[in-house]
From TrEMBL:
<comment type="similarity">
    <text>Belongs to the glycosyltransferase 2 family.</text>
</comment>
<keyword id="KW-0328">Glycosyltransferase</keyword>
<keyword id="KW-0808">Transferase</keyword>
<protein>
    <submittedName>
        <fullName>Glycosyltransferase family 2 protein</fullName>
    </submittedName>
</protein>
<dbReference type="Pfam" id="PF00535">
    <property type="entry name" value="Glycos_transf_2"/>
</dbReference>
<feature type="domain" description="Glycosyltransferase 2-like">
    <location>
        <begin position="6"/>
        <end position="152"/>
    </location>
</feature>
<dbReference type="InterPro" id="IPR001173">
    <property type="entry name" value="Glyco_trans_2-like"/>
</dbReference>
<dbReference type="InterPro" id="IPR029044">
    <property type="entry name" value="Nucleotide-diphossugar_trans"/>
</dbReference>
Amino acid sequence: MDTLAIVILNYNGQPFLAKFLPAVLANADGHPVYVADSASVDSSVSFLKATFPTVRVIELPRNDGYAGGYNLALDYIRTHYGGATYYALPNSDIEVTPGWLSPVLALLNANPQIAACQPKIRSYSQRDLFEHAGAAGGFVDWLGYVFCRGRVFATFETDNGQYDDNRRVFWATGACLFVRAEVFHQTGGFDASFFAHMEEIDWCWRIQRLGYEVWACGQSTVYHVGGGTLHKSNPHKTYLNYRNSLFMLYKNWPADNWLWPKILLRLVLDGLSSLLFLKVGQWRDVWAILRAHFAFYGQLPRLYRQRRLLQTQQTTKVHLYPRSIVWQYFAEGKKTFKEICNV
C-alpha cells in the first residue's frame, strides 16, 4: 500500500492538465499520481497517455461530478492498486508548490484523529490574495452558511502570514483536499447526490460526528484558478450551491426542535439573496435559486432517511459557529475572519 496517492479528477480539462500537471509530477515526492477522467469528450485521455506516461489514468464510465467521480476513482485505486494511507485530491486547476506535501503529511501522521486537511489556497490570478474555495480553512454558521479564514463572502484577505498556523477548522476545501483513506471508505465517501459543490463540507460534518477532526495546514500553499469546470457566473453553480447547502443542513443538523425553524429562515434568506441577482438583471440565477428550493422539497423523503440513519450512527457533538455570518457581514459590516470571530 502506498503512503499517499495523488488523485486528480478531470472532465474536459486538457488545457489545465497541460498547464498544471507537470508541477504536480515534479513535486510528487515519489508518490503515485492518478488522473481519473470522467468520460471527457475532449482529448484529455489520449493527451495524458501520450504526454505523461508515468501518470496512472483511470477512465471512469460517466461524469458523476466531483462527489460521484471521486467515490468511483478512490474505490478503483483501493481495489486495483492496493489503495493508500492518504489521498491528496487537488483540482485540475491547482498549481502546487515545492514542499506542498510534507507539512500536511506530517500533520496527518502526528494526529490519527485528523481525517481531512487542506493547505492554504491562494488565488492563481491575484497571488497574494486568498481564493474563494477554502482560503485557510472553513467554518459553518448556525444557519448553514459557510465562510473561511481569509475569505468571507466576496471579501478576500491578502495573505500576510496571519494564517500560517496549523489549526482545527470545520471543513477543508475540495479544491485541494487531503483525506485519511480508511475514514473515507468507512463513511462511504462523498454523498453522490450533491454531484458538485459542498459535498466536502457535508463529509467533514459527518466525520466530525464520528469523532474525527478537520484541520488546515498553514505551512503548505497552493494556487487555485477556480471555476475550471463550472465558472462562478454559471447559474448551474448557483443552483448546486443553494440546493446542496439545504441538503447539508437538513441531513446533519442535530436532533432537536430547531431544525425546521432554521430551514424556513434559510429559505427566506435565500429568497432575499435572489434580490441581489435581480438587481443586476441575472434572472437565470434567480430561477436557479427557485429550482434549488423545489429540488430540496422533492428530495425530502430521501434526505429524511439519510438524516435518521446519521442520527443513529453518529454521536459526537459538532460545534457550529453560533452567530449569523450573514448578519455580521451585511448588517454589522464585519468583513474579515478576525473581525467576525475575534481571534
